[in-house]
Sequence to fold (134 residues):
Amino acid sequence: MNTHESNPMADERYARGWAKLKEVDGQAGENVIDSLKDIAPDFARLLIEFPFGDIYSRPGLDLKVRELSVVAALTAMGNAMPQLKVHIYGARNVGCTQQEIVEVIMQMAVYAGFPAALNGLFAAKDLFSQEVPA
Fold:
């Protein structure tokens, strides 16, 4: 049983999160949610409600700053390559330049070490190579 059935507040939170997910990550974010539906649909719902419905929807930071912060955090973690790629895509989707993303990843070498920064740069390089020139 889905724990959020017939809860209007949860439905509003989900709708707000779904809209924000689509705004930030576009199809890449929707693909992550779709990949969870057969194994953990409640987790997919939580992934929409908390990060995107509650945190990304808060005032105070624009989406570019939020996504650059996420790229920095995931680069520093060094163990979240799939999520890093989704958020590099998201950063580009909300208007971050390739240079801004590269600078944030390079800065993580100071705090997380060169291996973490190198892995982040290779993730960015891979995604940038897939972009269609404007």
Notes: The chain has a mean pLDDT of 92. The first helix runs from residue 8 to 36.
